[in-house]
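Posting this for the archive.
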Amino acid sequence: MEIYLNQHIGEINKSIVNEGDKVIKGQLIAIPENFGANIHASVSGHVKKIDSNSIFIEPDKAQDKNDYLKIPDKDNKLELVKEAGVVGAGGAGFPTHIKLDVDLSDGVVIANAAECEPILNHNIKLIEEDPEIIFKGMEHILDITGANKGYIAIKNKNVKALIALKSLVSKYPDIEIRYIPDIYPAGDERVIIREILNIDLEPGVLPHEVGALVQNVETIKNIFNAIEKRKPVITKDITVGGRVEKARKGQVFLDQPLGKKIGDYIEKVGGLIEPAGSIYVGGPYINQKVNINSAITKVTSGVLVGMPQPNEKRKLGLLACSCGASVDDLKDIASDMGAEVASIERCKRMVKVNNQYKCEKPGSCPGQTEKVLALKNQGAKALLVGTCDD
């Protein structure tokens, strides 16, 4: 098992174990020296190797799936979340104890159950199988932040999940179910706030500035586990799909140990369909290229195998999007195609905020005629488009 030392936004963690040490599942093995989150062993075994990026653990042959070393008890819920190493499980990896450390008196908490990336469906599966964990987790967040209202934002097409939620919602008078449109990127927190609260957040404005907090449903599960079970984050829910034999439309694996190889899950669904393209973690829109030896982390959501890229000899114009493929993503794809990049433009809604590009109005996509003409005028003979609605 390869446990990465950076599974969050922030600096790489410092190992607090040594090569040859015996470790127990749930044991704290790496700590942040600055901005970050605790990392724990996902299995019991011996530390085989430590390098600048990872701790390698040789697992014991016998593993009790339900047993783990509990985190130390704390005086308050926020400290339990911090101790457990909870981060944004939807892919962002922001340390959750920092996000929850806000005063939301008279504010709201929103559970993000949008799961708007195609193929991915592990969040919805979680709700179908254990809806009460979402309600109880949200109650803890309401208590921590002082918010007085909770909403579960979900698409009405997820009928089985909705039935599960509606069977319990009457037990939780401070929490309501609200519908969001079946669009991409419905899971963007600014879209959720716009749809649920009718507030348009300007790029760079954080939800707590308008009295709101948005939390992915798997993160809510991890908050519940930290507070009620004193369980550290040692597992991840994932969807495996794409160009694989038995899961083209996605197969869900819940509570998988951190550190297992991506290739293990591709084998579980029958292996690659050849010819296959690159392997990615994330969704079809927002992702990162990996390989079969890469490990599952706290922020791994989808494990997707793409199509092989066609050969392209024409000069390409790249049209990037903050809700879809970035400039670097498109350059990487163009390289795989063997194509020369003639010109680069960004979606007309993209604005620069603190050295990052953000969408002015996610989910409301404009025409790109002037951008396409600019690419053509700069020598492009074909387009490679990363916008979420082309």
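The two ends are 41 Å apart (CA to CA). The first strand starts at residue 2 and ends at 4.
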